[in-house]
């Protein structure tokens, strides 16, 4: 990681990202707390998180827009627009204004998808292929660290300054990010215009994900794991209440321990990528969640600490493995669409899993559900590990950008030609 941090361009980008990620982390929970404070309803507070997640359905459109513009100015503009989108929060006074918070939360969710998509391309442009894992590892380490202090800081800022003060601090973070990254000097080739019908352009990210063997296996395996990993969002409360016999506030202690594991995983992830490759690192991250879930099936305080620590380590391993794989196996012209599509493919099962866990915890013993999570994540990890040779250790060459196609080419001919090229490459 020290090597990538010695690069002046990456250090500047890192400084801007630190400001924007801090703003994101303080807003995520604080907006829900604000709704709870105004309405007294847990359900309406939880709907704030849904409002943030809902824009994920627009991921293909967001990725298509991102791919049509240079990365650095787009990143700067997106941070400025996000800061502007927070201004309606200054008008919130009572429970009749909750719709304003929901609207801002949805815009914030849309901003998160956009910034993630454009960031993937910007890092790929700034950092050599052999340092991509280090760059992603640095960012994941910081993100995990902010998970430790960000939500608590957001809640504290809301309690001390109120909603308007919280909005002002969030705006300052995004404006700082725009200012810092705006000072970055990057030479970018202007993107070419669309060469296919707009519907085909929108789906290009999903077609690349399904057509590239390593990416296809990565998303299938991670998607399988995600279908049950989200159960833990509800099960952890049952574990603390029924298993440990402690107050629900003790969940915060376990989340802190998990955050420590996230820091460790973020620091280790570049070395794991170099030893096991991107798919191998993703496999390790998913599989590492298995013993953690199995340990939580047996309620014991110290075993629980070890389990959530392992679960914390697993998250940055999966993220660094997946993001580095996408950056190395995707043409630059498609990177925004592929990054946004992968975010949607992963987040969809996670959202279903969180909802399913909330329903199942009331009718099924939480220990059986933890055991199910453990078994399925181990199977998903094994499936990914079996395909680790698709991305062997070492820096992979950057993918060649395909030649432009004529707009008049029929879509079925394009699909057939892509399929033929894929078969020829594998042969």
TrEMBL record:
Pfam families according to UniProt: MFS_1 (PF07690)
Keyword set, alphabetical order: Cell membrane, Membrane, Transmembrane, Transmembrane helix
TM ranges: 12-35, 47-66, 73-92, 98-123, 144-161, 167-187, 219-239, 251-272, 279-298, 304-326, 366-385
Top-level taxon of the source organism: Bacteria
Cited SUPFAM superfamilies: MFS general substrate transporter
Membrane topology, from the record: Multi-pass membrane protein
Keyword Transmembrane helix recorded: yes
Compositionally biased intervals (Low complexity): 417-427
GO cellular component: plasma membrane
Subcellular location: Cell membrane
Protein name per Swiss-Prot or TrEMBL: Na+/melibiose symporter
Organism of derivation: Micromonospora nigra
């Amino acid at each position: 990681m020290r090597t990538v941090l010695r690069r002046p361009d990456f250090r500047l980008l890192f400084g801007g990202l630190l400001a924007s990620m801090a703003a994101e982390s303080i807003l995520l929970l604080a907006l829900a707390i604000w709704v709870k404070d105004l309405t007294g309803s847990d359900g309406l507070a939880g709907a704030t998180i849904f409002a943030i997640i809902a824009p994920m359905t627009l991921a293909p459109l967001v990725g298509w827009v991102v791919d049509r513009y240079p990365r650095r100015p787009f990143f700067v503009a997106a941070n400025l627009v996000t800061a502007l989108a927070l201004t309606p929060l200054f008008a919130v006074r009572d429970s009749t204004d909750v719709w304003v918070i929901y609207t801002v939360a949805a815009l914030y969710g849309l901003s998160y998808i956009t910034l993630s998509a454009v960031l993937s391309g910007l890092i790929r442009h700034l950092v050599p292929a052999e340092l991509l894992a280090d760059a992603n590892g640095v960012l994941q380490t910081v993100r995990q660290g902010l998970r430790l202090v960000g939500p608590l800081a957001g809640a504290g800022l809301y309690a001390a300054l109120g909603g308007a003060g919280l909005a002002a601090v969030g705006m300052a973070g995004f404006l700082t990010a725009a200012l810092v990254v705006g000072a970055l000097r990057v030479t970018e080739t202007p993107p070419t215009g669309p060469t296919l019908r707009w519907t085909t352009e929108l789906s290009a990210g999903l077609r690349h994900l399904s057509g590239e063997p390593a990416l296809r296996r990565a998303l299938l395996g991670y998607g399988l794991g995600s279908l049950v990993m989200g159960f833990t969002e509800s099960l952890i409360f049952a574990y603390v209440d029924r298993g440990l016999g402690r107050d629900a506030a003790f969940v915060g202690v376990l989340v802190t321990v998990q955050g420590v594991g996230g820091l460790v995983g973020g620091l280790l992830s570049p070395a794991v990528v170099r030893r096991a490759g991107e798919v191998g690192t993703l496999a390790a991250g998913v599989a590492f969640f298995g013993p953690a879930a199995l340990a939580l099936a047996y309620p014991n305080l110290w075993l629980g600490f070890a389990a959530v620590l392992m679960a914390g380590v697993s998250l940055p391993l999966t993220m660094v493995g997946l993001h580095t794989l996408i950056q190395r196996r995707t043409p630059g012209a498609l990177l925004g669409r592929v990054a946004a599509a992968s975010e949607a493919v992963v987040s969809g099962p996670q959202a279903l899993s969180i909802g399913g866990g909330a329903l199942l915890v009331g009718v099924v013993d939480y220990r059986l559900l933890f055991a199910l999570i453990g078994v399925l994540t181990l199977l998903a990890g094994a499936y990914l590990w079996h395909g680790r040779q698709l991305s062997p250790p070492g820096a992979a060459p950057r993918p060649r950008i395909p030649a432009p196609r004529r707009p008049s080419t029929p879509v079925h001919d394009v699909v057939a030609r892509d399929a033929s090229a894929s078969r020829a490459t594998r042969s």
